[in-house]
Fold this protein.
Amino acid sequence: MKIKQLFLPFILVLLAIPAQAHAQQPVVHAVMFWMDGCPHCEDVIQNVLPPLQQKYDGQFDLFMIEVKRMEDFDFLYQVAESYGISRQETGVPFIIVGEQVLIGSDQVRNQLPALVEDYLTRGGLDFPSNPLLADVLSASPSTPTTELVAQPQAESTPEPVSREASAPTVESSAEEPVENNGFTLAAVVMVFMVLATLYSLASLVIGKLYFHASWMDIAIPVLSVIGLGVAIYLTYVEAYGVKPVCGPVGDCGAVQSSPYAKIWGILPVGLLGAVGYIGILAAWFAGRQRWGWLSKYAPVALFGMALFGTVFSIYLTYLELYVIYAVCIWCVSSAIIITLILLFSLNSALQAFTPSDEEEDLE
């Protein structure tokens, strides 16, 4: 009995050593801004973070801040500006590790694992000392950190922190409430686009037009030139990082700096629109020439491009209303223009499918 009592303290010490060593493991803390529906964020959450969680098993702690409303975008811009990053260069995912910022899925994938490994070898890293983040980091209801997003096979996934519920709201730069700052206009335009698309497809199927005026054909190149100007301006804003002129309606900066401003993160939406308007102008011109079958079916190509542009504009407007939570007046203007071109080109498209008198005589 005395022997057991003699060795009992040593046994307890030996059992406590692994637990103490585990408790003293270094941890790297970081902050990530993300947005629901952002494909780059989903890529990072699904493909980049789970391997880090599996490899380091709690030694990498990521505090996730969801960007949901315009005030969240403003807060993100303020944080980015504190690191010398302009609005035009800001996007999500936006991860802060120490004093280093990673923007976009490519930077996160290529640099985050090495940064975590490096800081762990140095003994760990605390959360960024940026005073703008202090309130958010301390306002979590239970702990100032959230675990990494769990892998799909995990039983539960911790909810990311949203600034809307966890921290005081930073005043938005917009004077009007977010619901009234162009949202009603965008919603009305979206309904107009949907109805115009359904009407055009129905008229094309039944081969009957319910309204048309001669001036509509002449209006197509005029609208195309205006739309081309809008598209070129948006391309210029995206290419050179210029702050867009938005006026009293909407927040063009939030829309243009969102990940949806580029297709697959490469092709600016404005550039795609510019190419589309040039194609519409070319098809309209070809339809007024005597170039045989090319002139005959050019109106069909024009209608097809306008239909694609309208459907794509419906998608973009949906993103502004329900994902980005910001409206770009330039985008809304382009949406109206392409929808009018769709309606005005319907008559010529129907005529292209109607046999001419010469063709009927040949039959």
The domain at 26-166 is CATH 3.40.30.10 (Glutaredoxin). The chain is about 60% helix and 10% strand.
